[in-house]
Write a structure and sequence with these properties.
The structure holds two protein chains of two kinds.
Chain A: H1 15-32, H2 34-53, H3 64-94, H4 97-102, H5 108-136, H6 145-169, H7 172-189, H8 201-207, H9 211-223, H10 231-251
Helix pairs in contact in A: 1-5, 2-3, 2-5, 3-5, 3-6, 3-7, 3-9, 6-9, 6-10, 9-10
Chain B: E1 7-16, E2 19-29, E3 34-38, H1 45-52, E4 60-65, H2 74-77, E5 81-84, H3 96-105, H4 113-119, H5 135-147, E6 153-157, H6 165-180, E7 184-189, H7 192-198, E8 201-206, E9 209-214, H8 216-221, E10 226-231, H9 238-244, E11 250-255, E12 258-263, H10 267-279, E13 285-290, H11 294-302
Parallel strand pairs in B: 3-7, 3-8, 5-6, 6-7
Antiparallel strand pairs in B: 1-2, 1-4, 8-9, 10-12, 10-13, 11-12
Helix pairs in contact in B: 3-5
Classes of the chains: A mainly alpha, B alpha/beta.
Chain lengths: 255, 308
């Protein structure tokens, strides 16, 4: 390299280019990570196929796939926005990635925007894949796609807030363990594959307030039963979103 | 060289809980120079650097970097500085070159990534993910990430820690090229030879304060006296030599024919000694000036006991 190579020419790239580059990198990191793919793609797809084909749980009247697909879509959102994001961000914090990017021209809110975009891109891929599988299994969805979209977005915001709260406050190893445990517990107790009415009545009302229950129940109301817009479930998700993001904004530590 | 300092800290205080990491530190860094911040473990080097980088909000005093407040003016400052953390800073699943290209994309007018990768010997591991890089490769990647945005000022926290001698030289060469091209460099180091070799200016930090600052030559000249040794005929009359030497010099015959002169050893003194030898028909064999190294000065300033 010749003289003058390093002559200062400082400056930030345009904001939209920084955010696009960051979102692309985050998405590549996610798609390259085997454990993340297991969580976000393999497990939801397997559950959908397995529980549709084999009568493991009584899913009530109608086709099993019509009951299962909304729950699996909710699970996909949780796996990416909550579990995957919490684990990845937890380790980025631990390995100083967040710290190093904090000294780059990319503002912190830009980094968070990029993370959100990366979650949304991943979710689109998940929804496409799961929808294709569901149709192959004979799924016949009802309802308004815009209600579905609104619920998915609300669910994403709620789970992102909770995932970032966990990643920004706990140690990376604790986040890894806790995020997986929560994933498993909510998979079983959040109306994803097991209908909530299988649980004792006292538990039902509490479980119904979980973000995963609100999302799977709301999606099911629309996609299985053709409801217009389940405002109750949307409100539950909105409350979780405000609480989660608020707490994350307050308590998130970058190092 | 511009007169405006690129870093100016006055009375800087930073506490972590009850521990005071930086305790009324004053530091000025000149533009276009390489400044080494030297100090024992726990002296406050990293805290000082990270306060300049905007990571830490001072508990007291002021810091200005390129005339800006690193916390309040972070958005304006960050594009203009390059940062190399002591460790980490890269996605464990990112490939070396991929991460560098990403950092380049965050800047308006970055360096060409290809030549930089070659320059730092990262060509062979460009496709290797960060977690599989050796410690030295990780260090060099972090250095590349600090300079790729063509900053005016770079902060390097222990840039050569864990490097083999070749990689260390390559890093030194790069730092010199940065200076030649007008980039100001602030680095922390434990290595005295590194500071002596590279730095235009050295700030010695201990217990959260700058206890000495100056060029390596000046620091070495100050403090302890230097020594001149030679051998010649035993039993020379040192009295006549001492008369010719400046006040404060000392001369002694250690063993038969081995002479030592201590004091301010400068070219005039050397000339005086050699002409005195000539007058006395003495050939001063093995004449040698022993300069104090920065290490001597450092140990003298910071004491020899081990630090936590």
């Amino acid at each position: 390299m010749s003289a003058g190579t390093y002559t200062p020419r400082p400056g930030a790239a345009p904001l939209h280019r920084m955010i696009a580059a960051q979102a692309a990198l985050e998405t590549r990191m996610l798609l390259r990570n085997g454990e993340q793919l297991l969580l976000t793609v393999v497990i939801p797809a397997l559950l959908l196929v397995l529980f549709s084909a084999v009568d493991v749980v009584d899913t009530g009247a109608g086709e099993a796939v019509d009951f299962l697909t909304p729950g699996i879509l909710a699970l996909a959102v949780m796996s990416t926005a909550f579990t995957g994001q919490a684990i990845a961000t937890g380790f980025e914090r631990r390995y100083g990635v967040l710290k190093r990017l904090g000294a780059s021209p990319l503002p912190r809110w830009g980094l968070m925007t990029a993370k959100t975009l990366s979650v949304l891109v991943t979710e689109v891929l998940q929804v496409v894949l799961l929808t294709v599988i569901a149709f192959a299994l004979g799924w016949s969805p009802q309802g308004n796609p815009f209600s579905v979209l609104l619920l998915l977005v609300l669910g994403t915001v709620a789970f992102s807030g909770l995932g970032l709260l966990m990643a920004g406050t706990l140690k990376a190893e604790a986040t890894l363990a806790a995020a997986n445990l929560v994933f498993l517990l909510l998979l079983v107790g959040g109306g994803v594959v097991v209908p909530l009415d299988r649980f004792p009545e006292a538990a039902q009302s509490a479980l119904g307030l979980l973000p995963i229950s609100a999302l799977s129940d709301g999606l099911r109301d629309v996609l299985q039963h053709g409801a217009a817009m389940p405002w109750g479930d949307a409100a539950v998700l909105a409350v979780w979103a405000v609480l989660g993001l608020g707490a994350a904004a307050r308590f998130f530590r970058w190092e | 060289m511009s007169s405006e300092p690129v870093v100016q800290a006055r009375g800087l205080v930073k506490r972590y809980g009850t521990r005071t990491a930086v305790d009324g530190l004053d530091l000025e860094v000149s533009a276009g120079a390489v400044t080494a911040v030297l100090g024992p473990n726990g002296a406050g080097k990293t805290t000082t650097i990270e306060t300049c980088e905007g990571y830490r909000r001072p508990d007291g005093g002021t810091v200005r970097v390129l005339g800006l407040d690193p916390v309040a003016d972070a958005a304006a400052l960050r594009p203009r500085i390059g940062v190399m953390l002591q460790s980490g800073g890269v996605y464990s699943g990112a490939r070396a070159e991929e991460m560098l290209r990403h950092m380049a994309k965050l800047h308006a007018d970055p360096l060409d990534v290809g030549p930089l990768v070659e320059r730092l010997g990262l060509g062979s591991c460009g496709r290797t993910t960060y977690r599989r890089l050796s410690g030295g490769q990780q260090q060099r990647l972090a250095l590349a990430m600090a300079v790729v945005g063509r900053p005016e000022l770079v902060f390097l926290d222990e840039p050569t820690a864990g490097l083999d001698p070749q990689a260390r030289r390559a890093t030194w060469d790069l730092i010199r090229e940065l200076r030649t091209d007008g980039v100001s460099v602030v680095l922390t180091t434990h290595f005295m030879d590194e500071a002596e070799e590279l730095a235009d200016d050295v700030a010695v930090i201990d217990a959260g304060r700058v206890i000495a600052q100056g060029s390596p030559e000046r620091l070495c000249r100050g403090g302890a006296e230097n020594t001149l040794r030679f051998t010649g005929r035993p039993g020379l009359d040192l009295g006549s030599l001492l008369k010719a030497l400046p006040d404060g010099s000392e001369a002694a015959e250690l063993t038969g024919g081995a002479y030592r002169i201590t004091g301010r050893i400068d070219p005039e003194l050397l000339a005086t000694v050699t002409s005195w030898c000539a007058q006395n028909g003495v050939m001063p064999d093995g004449i040698a000036v022993e300069r104090h190294t920065l290490e001597d000065v450092f140990l003298e300033l910071t004491g020899k006991e081990l630090r936590a």
